[in-house]
Amino acid sequence: MYKIFCVFVAGLLVLTTSAQGEHPNLVLTKDGVAAIRDGLGKYPLLDVTFNEAKRDVDASIAGGIEVPVPKDAGGGYTHEKHKHNYSVANKAGVLWQVLGEKKYAVFARDMLLKYAALYPSLGLHPEGVNSGSPGKVFWQSLNDAVFLVNMIQAYDAVYDFCNTKERKIIEDGLFRNAVKFNTVDCKKVFDMIHNHGAWNVAGVMMTGFVLGDSTMISHALNGSNLDKNSGFLALVNKLYSPDGYYIEGPYYLRYAYWPFGLTATAIANNLPLVNIFAYRDSVLLKAPLAMLQMTNPTGNFLPFNDAIKEKAWTSQEVISAVDIAYSHTEDTNLLYVAMQQGTVMLSAEGVKVAKAIAEGKAPKQFKRHSIVLRDGANGDEGGVGILRSGQDDDQMSIVMKYGVYGMEHGHYDKLSFMMYDQNKEIIKDYGAVRYLNIVQKRGGRYLPENKSFGKQTVAHNTMVIDEKSQYNANAKTAGDKHSNALYFNADDSNFQVMSAIDTTAYSGVSLWRTMAMFRYDMAAKPVIIDVFKAVSNEQHIYDLPYYYAGTLIETSIKYSANREWVPLGKKYGYQHLFNVADGTADTNNISFTWYLDKRFYTLLTTAVPVTEAFFVQVGATDPEMSLRPEKAFIIRNKNVSNYTVASVLEPHGEYNEPFEYVNGAYSNFKNISVVGDSENAVVVSVSTKDDREWLLNIDKGKATITRVK
């Protein structure tokens, strides 16, 4: 039988039919089941995925079903047991559909019946006091929404296997109660423009499709008040820029796209007239491609905002993004990622990927390129710029962040940057202070040092004024503020440049940063020229940190090592920095050379005789020893109003440890100076030791470089 859905989409009444009597009808469909059956034994990646799912479910059947009363936070026994249960129930439903073996349907059905019996008895989770929005099965409602998304897919797969009585028990005991919890008890989260809201909406939307409940579907699409200020369409409208950039950054896009991709697929299968993957110029297909471009050469996500550095494109959350995007775009770059993941979705989308890989369509490398991704719903709220040079393992890149704050997962780091080379971080962003799902570290939650250090401006490679964080570390103040992009030009591989300005981070101060990747004829690698300008009517202290990876080799600063390490300051992150050594410049340039792996790196920067330098290490005022001992040097100029600092960062040389030889250990550059400086333009001279010289001319409309000697 067919079900007629009557729902409002973007203000229009949409009447559409869905094969309500033909289950499954969410992500896995009858066509998908047929594709899996036909592909088994033909496509190795599909076989690997299917056999792994079968082993997992078979072991769970042998071990019996356990549905414990929830009590543990993330990483604890009951938490992990419920996670495993919803995962294995979902897989069992797929196995039943594909193999037709009754034991899989019985297992999934019985799991659902046990949860239907347990769920009505549950109050809020005992660990929910540590969450802003506690769940029932899990300590936070977010995890309950993920639970619902998985369990409704399991039910969808065994719907026809269950008799009428069993369906009523499962639907009334579990799913309608869970939807009520999501939409009524957690109404604030359900209507939230946030990744938590996306998961809630996904669970309710999918439940509506399986139960044939158009009210659930309408609320999921248009928000609990049906005013289109929340719900799935509002989430797509407000969280993604026209380029597919996600407001919370790449690490959270990795997680957020999971519900977006699954929900959009369910909409495409049930409400085809909506044409959801074409919505907003196909932004939901641009997002996975943008996400993957925001990875470093090892596939790890660029760690700005709250980010755990170990998360990479092999994370389980990214599998569906890759498969869904490929099924619609056939971008072969995605096939390379799928091979690294070593698994696919058990759906028509996953079969298509496995088939393409089996046919040899996957490239040998993932092609990263220079890219600018605009931020904001309309693409006019700054963004992220990535300049890249070289290919594959020899690629060098710099990243500059100049978009919006990023909601509560954002950091106070306008105009910050990172650098990668040799498949490694060279100039580092700390990321988040969190040990995900490690119970001993406060239940795996974000640690206090995430706010006191990780988010603070001094934890990043950007200007800090008067030893205070941007926006005085006030998230409400920072929330809707953004920098402004001036230009991004990567057309000339020998001179790529990006520039942005911010007037919101510090009251009465304009910050303008221009970064160029410049490759001249004698250079084995390009150099980075970094020009940072501050304009103010008042005098300030200006600190510019550089967090570097490697071992300091030498510096032109005559420093004094401190016998007792004490914090550099008292708040805004300075309390977490040990002052290891400090000194003062005595020339117009200061330099720092460090070594990492096989290469040397030298930062040469402009200075005045009162320029100070601090050599710091992260870890002060850290009683639980949660912070990594990262190292940085901080360049300080104080009692100045307008301040322009120019630097050249050069990779050079080679250190071959097995054969014990060193080449090019000294920098090729001898001088950098600001030779012209006005409110709207800067001219920088850069010269090498063999007496070549270039002038970098920067204004607010363009930047050019010219050799003058």
Verbal overview:
The strands form six sheets. The chain has an eight-stranded antiparallel β-sheet with strand order 9-10-11-12-21-18-17-14, with no helix packed on it. A six-stranded antiparallel β-sheet has the order 8-13-20-19-16-15, with no helix packed on it. Strands 3-4-5-6-7 form a five-stranded antiparallel β-sheet, with no helix packed on it. A hairpin with a 4-residue loop joins strand 22 and strand 23. Helix 2 packs across helix 3 and helix 5 packs parallel to helix 8. The protein starts with a strand and ends with a strand. It has 709 residues and is α+β, with helices and mostly antiparallel strands. The chain folds into two domains: 356 residues, Alpha/alpha barrel (Glycosyltransferase), CATH 1.50.10.100; 337 residues, Beta-galactosidase, Chain A, domain 5, CATH 2.70.98.70. The radius of gyration is 27 Å and the shape is elongated. It is built from 17 helices and 27 strands.
- Total of DSSP H or I helical runs spanning 4+ residues: 17
Strands in their spatial order, largest beta sheet: 9-10-11-12-21-18-17-14
Beta strand count: 27
The largest pleated sheet is described as:
8 strands, antiparallel
Task: Report, as a whole number of angstroms, the end-to-end distance.
Answer: 80 Å
Oligomer kind: single chain
Mean pLDDT: 94
Please give the share of residues in helix.
25-40%
User: Going by CATH, what is the homologous superfamily of the largest domain?
Assistant: Chondroitin AC/alginate lyase
Give unreliable regions as ranges: 12-19
What is the total domain count? 2
Write down the CATH class of the largest domain.
Answer: Mainly Alpha
Report the β-strand fraction as a percent range.
Answer: 25-35%
- So what's the overall shape? elongated
**What name is given to the CATH topology of the largest domain?**
Glycosyltransferase
Computed over alpha carbons, the radius of gyration is 27 Å
Task: Give me the CATH architecture of the largest domain, please.
Answer: Alpha/alpha barrel
SS-based class: alpha+beta
